[in-house]
Write a structure and sequence with these properties.
about 35% strand
């Protein structure tokens, strides 16, 4: 059994901006919580759990709220276990296409311990495989690895691995921006996707290399790991209680893995 602190924010952190995909004005306010992580929109409330996920195409949609993965990654990376997230506009702010803005905002209001969480991790490995996509989770100490693979264009194979802690997440993963393939941008915009992003808030991948300045040589792999962290946190399992290896996985496989992980793990909150 592993024991972790239960943490929430000391006061409300509010983020205002454009929706990552919609480009419309949106607001997200993260309030102190005592009953896990939940999202609210109007009179509706959804717990941050795999069963409440309604869509996994290009983003993770919880109930009526789209693109929750970058905020969920920030909560996971900082170890926040309890929060009430109030959203207007139906989507989280793009926040630079990453988690850094959320991390900085959450830290600015301060974190507060409200109890403990005891985790009995899975005895057997949790494994999801679909065609070339795979994801393996085992009891561990927070060693996470993502392998990003493209077939006929840059980067080919790119990987990133880290021992997760709040500092490592904040410095090495949170700044990594969402991925845009250059030859898909026009069609994506016609489909109403990525309207809240530009060359400063996305890393653009061309056939032979990045088409704008990358923050990290392996920024694509780091961002895919960021997405994975956010999606798997739907299980409620602290990131430092498990070891994770993923190859080519996206939101659909991530959410399926979160559901299996939640079923295989027992949690006691005190």
């Amino acid at each position: 059994m592993n024991v972790f602190d239960r943490l929430t924010v000391r006061s409300t952190a509010t983020f205002v901006g454009q929706g990552l995909h919609s480009g419309s004005p949106v607001t997200a306010s993260i309030h102190p919580g005592t009953n896990g992580i939940a999202f609210r929109s109007g009179n509706n409330r959804w717990r941050a759990e795999p069963s409440e996920i309604k869509e996994t195409v290009r983003c993770t949609r919880l109930g009526d709220i789209s693109t929750i993965e970058h905020l969920m990654a920030a909560l996971a990376g900082l170890g926040l276990t309890d929060a009430e997230v109030e959203v207007t506009g139906g989507e989280l702010p793009a926040a630079g296409g990453a988690s850094k803005v959320f991390v900085e905002g959450l830290r600015s209001v301060g974190l507060e311990k409200i109890g403990s969480i005891e985790v009995n991790p899975p005895y057997a490995r949790v494994f999801v495989k679909c065609h070339e996509r795979s994801l393996a989770i085992a009891a561990g100490n927070g060693r996470w690895r993502y392998e990003f693979v493209t077939e006929e264009c840059f980067p080919g194979t790119q990987s990133f691995e880290a021992n997760l802690s709040p500092e490592v997440f904040s410095k090495e993963i949170a700044p990594a921006r969402t991925i845009a393939f250059a030859d898909e941008i026009e069609s994506a915009r016609r489909a109403g996707l990525g309207l809240g992003l530009d060359e400063s808030t996305a890393v653009i991948i061309g056939r032979d290399g990045y088409e704008n300045e990358a923050l990290f040589e392996d920024e694509a792999a780091r961002h895919k790991l960021l997405d994975l962290i956010g999606d798997l946190y739907l299980s409620g399992i602290p990131v430092q209680a498990i070891d994770v290896i993923a190859e080519r996985s996206g939101h659909s496989a991530n959410v399926e893995a979160a559901a299996r992980l939640a079923q295989a793990t027992s949690i006691v909150r005190t």
